[in-house]
């Protein structure tokens, strides 16, 4: 399509969601948090007592998922799920349903429907490879596993979750391994994606990197 897309992919807890949302705000573009769709699918499945490897049931669920993205708020079946889907257990569930090819297919058009003028910033694992392969700017945003664990730890502790740093590091490494190893839409740095290693960068510096490169290609 003619709508410009900035595709930001990377591993969990890299900060790509924060950076993508700020780039979108700065350009006054739309924003897609694709991971939220996998998290919502996992949450809906758990609420319905579905097994997270029941592919036909999960694909049917994903296809008719009743979700709404409002101003900073995410609704599932009309109820506020903004905070619920950020739980570690839901992230873990999301990465399990995300290996299922027919679940991914069921969510594909819903993601593409976010592309509206004047543009879209989309973050996830396969924005540049599968969902928006023609995106004029693709970024692979990462940070060391230790730094990502630290960032996630601070977030979760602030929310009152009881979890240790080593547990988070283990979760993150397990999730990355699953996201990289799956046969459909694996997490990978594409040849045409720019590497943005944020280990030693602030959020502002990371946002600036993306904006500078967007100016250079547009
Ligand atoms: O980005 P976030 O941590 O919210 O994503 C949760 C999980 O959803 C990821 O670990 C990944 O398995 C899956 N996901 C995906 N493709 C995307 C976005 C997320 O497979 N585009």
TrEMBL record:
<dbReference type="GO" id="GO:0015949">
    <property type="term" value="P:nucleobase-containing small molecule interconversion"/>
</dbReference>
<dbReference type="GO" id="GO:0005524">
    <property type="term" value="F:ATP binding"/>
</dbReference>
<keyword id="KW-0963">Cytoplasm</keyword>
<dbReference type="InterPro" id="IPR027417">
    <property type="entry name" value="P-loop_NTPase"/>
</dbReference>
<feature type="domain" description="Cytidylate kinase">
    <location>
        <begin position="6"/>
        <end position="213"/>
    </location>
</feature>
<dbReference type="Pfam" id="PF02224">
    <property type="entry name" value="Cytidylate_kin"/>
</dbReference>
<dbReference type="GO" id="GO:0005829">
    <property type="term" value="C:cytosol"/>
</dbReference>
<comment type="similarity">
    <text>Belongs to the cytidylate kinase family. Type 1 subfamily.</text>
</comment>
<keyword id="KW-0067">ATP-binding</keyword>
<keyword id="KW-0547">Nucleotide-binding</keyword>
<feature type="binding site">
    <location>
        <begin position="10"/>
        <end position="18"/>
    </location>
    <ligand>
        <name>ATP</name>
    </ligand>
</feature>
<protein>
    <recommendedName>
        <fullName>Cytidylate kinase</fullName>
        <ecNumber>2.7.4.25</ecNumber>
    </recommendedName>
</protein>
<dbReference type="InterPro" id="IPR003136">
    <property type="entry name" value="Cytidylate_kin"/>
</dbReference>
<keyword id="KW-0418">Kinase</keyword>
<dbReference type="GO" id="GO:0036431">
    <property type="term" value="F:dCMP kinase activity"/>
</dbReference>
<dbReference type="InterPro" id="IPR011994">
    <property type="entry name" value="Cytidylate_kinase_dom"/>
</dbReference>
<dbReference type="GO" id="GO:0036430">
    <property type="term" value="F:CMP kinase activity"/>
</dbReference>
<dbReference type="GO" id="GO:0006220">
    <property type="term" value="P:pyrimidine nucleotide metabolic process"/>
</dbReference>
<keyword id="KW-0808">Transferase</keyword>
């Amino acid at each position: 399509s003619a709508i410009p897309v900035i595709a930001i992919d990377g591993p969990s807890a890299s900060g790509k969601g924060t950076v993508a949302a700020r780039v979108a705000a700065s350009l006054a573009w739309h924003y897609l948090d694709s991971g939220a769709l996998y998290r919502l699918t996992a949450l809906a499945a758990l609420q319905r007592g579905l097994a997270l490897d029941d592919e036909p049931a999960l694909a049917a669920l994903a296809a008719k998922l009743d979700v709404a993205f409002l101003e900073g708020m995410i609704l599932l079946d009309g109820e506020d799920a903004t905070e619920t889907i950020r739980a570690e257990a839901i992230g873990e569930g999301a990465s399990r349903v995300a290996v299922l090819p027919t679940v991914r297919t069921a969510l594909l058009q819903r993601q593409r429907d976010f592309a509206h003028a004047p543009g879209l910033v989309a973050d996830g694992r396969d924005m540049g490879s599968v969902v928006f392969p023609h995106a004029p700017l693709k970024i692979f945003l990462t940070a060391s596993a230790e730094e990502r664990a630290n960032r996630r730890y601070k977030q979760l502790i602030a929310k009152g979750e009881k979890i240790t740093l080593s547990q988070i590091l283990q979760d993150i490494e397990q999730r990355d391994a699953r996201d990289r190893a799956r046969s459909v839409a694996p997490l990978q740095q594409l040849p045409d994606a720019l590497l943005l290693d944020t280990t030693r960068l602030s959020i502002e510096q990371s946002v600036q990197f993306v904006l500078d490169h967007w100016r250079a290609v547009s």
